[in-house]
UniProtKB/TrEMBL annotation:
Domain AMP-dependent synthetase/ligase residues, every copy: 38-377
Species of the source: Streptomyces silvensis
Protein name, UniProt field: AMP-dependent synthetase/ligase domain-containing protein
Pfam families in alphabetical order: AMP-binding
């Protein structure tokens, strides 16, 4: 079949082409007519959701906001909404409730589709549901709280086809730097996310299960689904990043490829030391969103029983999709300096990247500055914001980095996360994690002008002071850097497990 990014039509097309291929989740599909095991099952679930949405009155042109627990069924519901010509808006249930209400208001009274978790999060605003939603639909009877109607009765739906310039999906940014941005993707811009991924899958010739443990409302998962449906790659959606759930899923399904957010992989280092290793069958690890910590990369590669496993990193953002790619094998770990860098690879074909100074002038190779990209995958627009510049315009990533003469990008900092006196907070955190294996997480911020390391240890005990000072010096942090220890569970995270650095500041403290 020809590659496609039509969320509504592709499940059915893929079912005809490779319907028997595995496509499943590790947990039951509570709101679906069945728990799919194959591509054909998935297509049937999408069609059933579409019938039920049609029966509830959803019609072409409507916006359907989805707020539910993290599960792969989000992707099936998204496809069903698109199939009947409506526009899915995927919102994370882990978002701050006030931010969720903000997003619903920006969407101008969409249909609101919830499960029990979505209902619980939005319950304080239940009296305002009529103001922010045209109608509230409950995925299960348990979610049908006051004002919500169960998504139950079916009616044969009418399929809507989309052209390349038609809007097909609304997702949101992580909200690490403020209010989430609602981003609109067209069929063409979403396909530009997918095309490089299809190329990578086809070049690797994979046949084993590809497992993903992600935020299923993120555009990365939507493009991942399209890649799976286009290529016939067997797929497993892992619902929870908690260690027992991940261990059970990996030992049961024995995936060949495994994708997760960087901070999930960091948390899973503990699993890598277990016998039997849950990662023993993993040939390829995949990570996007942020650069992976070198310690984590090394730990996971060494946990595989494959001859020479690979770690594939992609750098990008919700607005752009993946922009660069870097592949590291276990044999590369011995390459001098490889794990002391923040290298996130080179640009995918058809995408451009540059580094500029404050005035927007390109900088020479190796000079740190602002990273900008040009890509056909950039989102079409933002809800409630001024029109975006054309895709031929350079797009600021909001990151500080350097571009090498060989085209490799060195990622140093988010612009808003820079700390005075620290050349790169990301590199400093890498060094601390390498020097101090007992650290489960460490984040460098500024508190009232003082460089501060907010740290969590695996055993909950502070690091020996002498060892801390040695690690601090190796990380090139100021001698007056202070350490604040917190339990890992106290770190404020986004739905993609990024640390909300601005939320680590004591109340009222300036950055």
């Amino acid at each position: 079949m020809l590659p496609s990014a039509d969320l509504g039509l592709l499940p059915g097309i893929a079912a005809e082409d490779h319907g028997g291929v595995t496509l499943c989740a590790d947990m039951p599909w509570i709101s679906a007519c069945r728990s799919p095991e194959t591509v054909s099952d998935f297509a049937a679930v999408v069609a059933d959701y579409a019938d039920r949405l049609w029966g509830a009155g959803v019609r072409p042109g409507a916006v359907v906001a989805l707020v539910k627990s993290n599960h792969f069924d989000i992707q099936a519901i998204q496809c069903a909404v698109a199939r009947i010509g409506a526009l899915p808006a995927l919102l994370s249930v882990t978002m701050e409730p006030a931010d969720l209400v903000y997003c619903l208001k920006e969407l101008q009274r969409p249909y609101l589709l919830i499960d029990t978790d979505g209902a619980a999060v939005l319950r304080p605003w239940q009296g305002q549901w009529g103001e922010v939603a045209a109608r509230v639909l409950a995925l299960t009877p348990e979610a049908a709280v006051a004002g919500a109607v169960e998504l139950g009765e079916s009616a044969p739906h009418r399929i809507t086809r989309r052209s390349g310039s038609d809007r097909t999906l609304i997702t949101h940014s992580s909200g690490t730097t403020g209010k989430p941005k609602l981003l609109v993707h067209t069929v063409d811009s979403l396909y530009a996310h997918v095309a490089p991924q299809i190329g990578v899958v086809q070049s690797l010739g994979s046949a084993g299960i590809s497992a993903k443990c992600l935020s299923f409302v993120h555009v990365r998962m939507s493009s991942g689904l399209l890649t799976v449906l286009n290529t016939g790659l067997p797929f497993l959606g892992i619902t929870s990043p908690d260690l027992p759930s991940v261990r059970e899923a990996l030992l049961r399904y024995r995936p060949e490829a495994l994708e997760a957010q960087p901070n999930m992989f960091l948390r899973w280092e503990a699993l890598a030391r277990e016998t039997p290793s849950p990662f023993s069958t993993v040939e390829r690890y995949i990570s996007s969103f942020d650069a992976i910590h070198p310690r984590t990369l090394r730990t996971l590669l060494e946990a595989s029983d494959r001859p020479n496993p690979t770690f594939i990193q992609a750098y990008g953002q919700t607005e752009t999709g993946p922009v660069t790619i870097l592949m590291t094998t276990r044999s590369d770990l011995h390459e001098r300096g490889r794990l002391n860098s923040r290298d996130v690879g080179t640009a995918f074909p058809g995408m451009e990247i540059r580094v500029v100074d404050d005035a927007g002038s390109p900088l020479p190779a190796g000079a740190p500055g602002h990273i900008e990209v040009r890509t056909p995958a950039r989102a079409e627009s933002m809800i409630g914001r001024a029109p975006l510049p054309g895709r031929e315009t350079w797009w600021p990533m909001g990151d500080i980095g350097a571009l090498g003469a060989d085209g490799h990008v060195e990622l140093l900092d988010r612009h808003v996360d820079q700390v005075l006196g620290v050349p790169s907070t990301l590199r400093a955190e890498d060094v601390l994690l390498d020097e101090l294996p007992e650290l489960a997480e460490v984040v460098i911020i500024s508190v009232e002008g003082t460089v501060t390391a907010v740290a969590a240890t695996t055993d909950g005990k502070p690091v020996d002071e002498g060892r801390w000072q040695q690690a601090r010096d190796a990380a090139e942090l100021p001698r007056n850097t202070r350490v604040e220890y917190r339990p890992w569970d106290d770190f404020p995270l986004t739905g993609t497990m990024k640390v909300r650095r601005h939320r680590l500041l004591p109340h009222g403290a300036p950055g």
